[in-house]
Specification:
The protein is of the alpha+beta class and 586 residues long. 20% of the residues lie in helices and 30% in strands.
Amino acid sequence: MLYPQQNIFRNKLDLSGVWDFQVDPDQMGEQKGWQNGLVDARSIAVPGSWNEQYEGLYNYLGLAWYVKSTYIPQGWRGQRVFLRVGSACYFATVYVNGNKIGSHEGGHLPFAFEITDQIRWETENVIAISVENELKPTRVPSGNMNTPLLPVASFPHTTYDFFPFAGIHRPVVLYSVPQTYIEDVTVVTEIDGADGILKMTVRLSAAVSEQGFLQIKGGDTTVTAKLAFLDGLAEVQLTVANAKFWSDKTPYLYVLTIQTEQDHYALKVGIRTIAVQGGQILLNGQPVQMNGYGRHEDFIASGKGLNLPLLVKDYQLMRWTGANSYRTSHYPYSEEEMQLADREGFLIIDEIPAVSLQFEDDENIAVRQRMCLQQIDELIARDKNHPSVVMWCVANEPMTPRLNLTASDALNDPAVVKGKDFLDKLMRRVRELDPTRLVTFATLGGTPTSWVEHCDVVCMNRYWGWYILGGELDKALVSLEQELDAVWETWHKPIIMTEFGADTLAGMHGHPNVMWTEEYQAEYIRGHLMVAAQKDYIAGMQVWNFADFASVQSIMRVGGINMKGVFTRGRTPKMAAHVLREFWAK
């Protein structure tokens, strides 16, 4: 999971660009030899979703093929060569020069296969990747279930309120490493007074014993230590005196360099701690408010494809409103985005794609749980060294067939018991892999109370004044306050409102303020922030959503767009964005 990099021992070649592309609705491509090249190809951009690049592919989620030919530099001879895909939704198979190399299930996370033995050094190599994003009840997130998300007919038939973009969404990279290379690095930081403590584990690709060294450098500070690998594993602890700590206000990054006999790897690390105490989240021992947004990787034409100028623009806009945090709703975002969060000082709730989990069928539950555990393993392996990531989120709005069960009914409801067992297992896995960060999931109104027992922070998605008591903001805010107080009295844990918002058609105004007008959204958000300001146990407010985004087609989604953004899909601010700036950017 280490991010590929170029240095004196390693090489990388980014294959992003325009590829050959062909849909395969009958799934006959492999039989027809498409892994060797496409005969009726059209152009497709990688990274990028295919749905918005061609009108006729908007609702196509079946099998499709990507093919690109490339030379591999002669200087890579003697090294091990890998092909790495940053994200392919949902199931992908990789071929090199006609040979099937391997498959990966689950979108939004990277995977890599060694292709050293399949390389042709004297001619071009044919790289083929087949991808499909079929909506199935067994997948995470699920689709084509008997219980759709929206209470009205919608298409595609998802269980989630965002468009199921398909394709290769992040870079495809060829990279080379030495025969024995640095395979994994884990960095854990602590604070002792003015000093920073770094505990590091380095694993090699082979169980060898050799020597190496490690260096931490920042400004005028340089600290080094020897590494002694035993069976391919080395552990070391360093102290940085008078350290500069990483925070949302001062996101200071040190450069960690690891050198072995054959390899070299560098990454940026931040020294910080995260904890909870009473109703507060503590960053470096001090209370911090996690104010910001739920977001989506979504933009015109690129869909969910990596869009670097858009990332920079979005971070600037979030800072303009005074935000310091967001949740990767509802799936892991790109590695490039996590690197930018480290650099810019954003506090991230990092979420796996477990949206709208349901617990109706034992066989489906078992398959989904296997996938959720895989996604947790891959996500933590990828993001464990990012100081920006302060909390893992194992699900968004898991639900039972009946919400708002009474306490006695919940005790006897099979779905409640199955759901708690499922979520508890996910949270245990997170803590086994990373006990240094917080863990949570985002609750829906009516979520069984027992499910949040093992959360460090109670994350609440609530729509008082929109889906409930819509248009009656005075009553809605009273109900919101009553529910917040009740949750606090039950658990005495920090609360973050991870979703609250109102759909708004940009440019629509009203006097009086009625639903769908910019005035109503602004008043709605102002009211929620005023309620939260009176509660010491509120540790953050994250508006749904940062920007309008593509969703399913239904009578609730004008033009197939969820319009709860405080910015339009094209990033023009609505009135609500100015309200947030008024509260957060003081």
